[in-house]
Design goal:
The complex is a heterodimer of chains A (218) and B (303). Chain A is 13% helix and 44% strand. With 218 residues, chain A is mainly beta. A twelve-stranded mixed β-sheet of chain A has the order 7-8-9-10-11-1-2-3-4-5-6-12. The longest helix of chain B is centred in the first third of the chain and has 24 residues. In chain B, a hairpin with a 2-residue loop joins β1 and β2. Classes of the chains: A mainly beta (218), B mainly alpha (303). At the A-B interface, α1, β1, β2, β3 and β4 of A face α6, α7, α8, β4 and α9 of B.
């Protein structure tokens, strides 16, 4: 192979590897706002962290808080089917549920038929200019979100159906219920490569339970 | 001397009939010259050379006579010329062949630029950690030696149950590649507060905070001031114990003068146990509620 051809091929490989889809990791800090200075049991979730890991067709949501550590693993098989595993990683008795696409859809039934109202209000989060969106559910509840159009994480839609109408990556969202508000604020965004082990569903000492919607776990 | 005659022979291949008036003129001129040459020959002068020079002059004048070639002949000549000089390629190939060293240098510079951009993009985690510092300042990044605890201890009013110590140190979970930092997670077996490491009991952070041996209680539980406490769990998880929760935890470790826990301490522990049961009943026993969902979690907390 001549030198120019070799150089051309090397450059093509570099550009291709650079241009392919990048992994994405976003961490959100959970904070509670309330008129009361002490929300009781809420304080065990206040200050927790929810992390989203996205790599090609695999997603993991992980919650770490004083009260519990739990993950949802989603493996997107194709546009229609996916495998969802919910794993409770904390406590003496760890367990997991495996849900089909239909069951996952039922699990997130409250987000069906939601609508988004995008506004021109904006703010800056992690140096990204973010626009405001109000997500309205069929039940009348609303979630206020701030998103950046700099990222289009299509893989995240499977894991966060609440953001299915948002044209970008949500960096902050909050939900107000009765006298309190729960706020998720992104603290880090990373596009570094994610090791495959992050998406491995833990097996050791984890009991598989059968998921039956609406019924207590067995 | 023979050269003019070779040209003539080659020209014969491309023979074209000249215009009739030219032919007539040429004939008359040649006839005149020939006659002159004959006369000079007969007179014995040096007419041969004169004849040859006159003859050559005619040939030169013929050479100056221009006739436009028919297009098919021009095309044939050009194609013959092209065959003889091989095509050196067009565009990039031509440039590479004409300027090999400059082309190689340009490719190398482009390669280095691409590599630099790739490195810059894939070392982002270092920058995002700086952002983390912005949001959660004063978080220590040092990794003290950590220990693992395999013993099962639950929240119990009998705080005399000890957390086993002096266990083998766990490996550092952070990958240390010189390039982009790979995101890796391991089971949470330890955490650190202000550089001080603690093992996790029962895979449960709340149980851990309720299970400290009185000789190993973290410093923040002794302070008078109620303030937030930052816990470093792993690369992407730095949780915060709120002021209210820190105050609750301090109450758990209040002791009387005799060293026994106070009534308030016992009540606080009972309260934490109740919270634990409530949480399990809501999220573990009825799987329809998702603690990772903001709506489900908010409804559980603020009901």
């Amino acid at each position: 192979m001549s030198i120019p051809r070799f150089l051309f091929c090397t450059i093509a490989v570099f550009v291709f590897s650079f241009a392919k889809g990048q992994d994405l990791t976003v961490s959100y800090a959970i904070t509670l706002k309330s008129k009361k200075s002490n929300t009781g049991i809420g304080e065990t979730y206040n200050g927790g962290v929810k992390t989203v890991f996205i790599s090609k067709d695999q997603i993991r949501l992980r919650l770490v808080s004083l009260m519990r550590m739990e993950s949802i693993f989603i493996q997107q098989k194709d546009n229609l089917s996916k495998k969802v595993t919910i794993v409770k990683e904390s406590g003496k008795e760890k367990y997991k549920y495996i849900l089909t696409s239909e069951q996952w859809k039922g699990y997130n039934q409250k987000y069906e038929g939601l609508t988004c109202h995008l506004s021109d209000d904006s703010t800056k989060l992690l140096n990204y200019s973010c626009k405001k969106a109000v997500i309205a559910l069929k039940s009348g509840e609303t979630i206020t979100a701030f998103y950046t159009p700099s990222f289009q994480p299509t893989g995240l839609l499977a894991a966060e159906p609440a953001f299915s109408c948002i044209p970008g990556l949500v960096l902050k969202y909050e939900y107000k219920y009765k006298k309190g508000t729960i706020i998720y604020t992104a603290t880090t965004i990373s596009q570094g490569p994610i090791d495959k082990s992050v998406f491995s569903v833990p097996d050791k000492d984890v009991t598989e339970k059968k998921y039956i919607p609406g019924k207590p776990a067995r | 001397m023979s050269q003019p005659f070779d040209i003539l022979r080659r020209l014969q291949d491309y023979e074209l009939l000249p215009p009739p008036e030219v032919v007539a003129g040429l004939r008359s001129a040649l006839t005149l010259e020939m006659n002159r040459a004959q006369e000079s020959q007969e007179s014995g002068s040096d007419g041969i050379n004169e004849g040859i020079s006159i003859h050559t002059g005619c040939i030169e004048r013929v050479g100056q006579l221009e006739i436009e070639l028919p297009s098919f002949i021009r095309a044939a000549i050009e194609s013959r010329l092209r065959e003889k000089s091989p095509d050196k390629g067009s565009g990039i190939k031509k440039i590479f062949s004409l300027y090999p060293y400059r082309s190689a240098a340009a490719c190398l510079i482009l390669l280095i630029a691409c590599w630099g951009i790739y490195r810059a993009k894939h070392t982002q985690p270092a920058a995002t950690l700086a952002v983390t510092h912005k949001v959660n300042p004063a978080l220590s990044e040092t990794k003290p030696p950590v220990t693992q605890n395999q013993n099962a201890v639950s929240i119990d009013s009998a705080a005399e149950k000890k957390v086993a110590g002096n266990l083998p140190a766990a490996e550092n979970t952070k990958t240390g590649s010189s390039g982009a930092k790979m995101v890796k997670l391991k089971q949470v077996t330890s955490f650190s507060i202000a550089g001080q490491g603690f093992p996790v009991v029962d895979n449960d952070l709340l149980v851990t905070f309720a299970s400290f041996n009185y000789g190993e209680i973290p410093a923040f539980l002794f302070g008078n001031e109620d303030k937030e406490v930052k816990i470093h769990v792993d690369q992407y998880t730095n949780i915060v114990i709120s002021r209210a929760m820190a105050a609750t935890m301090k109450e758990m470790y209040q002791v009387k003068s005799g060293g026994k826990p106070t009534r308030k301490a016992r009540k606080t522990r009972e309260k934490l146990e109740e919270w634990k049961k409530k949480d399990i009943a809501h999220f573990d026993q009825s799987p329809g509620s998702n603690p990772l969902d903001p709506i489900d979690l908010a409804k559980f907390i603020f009901k």
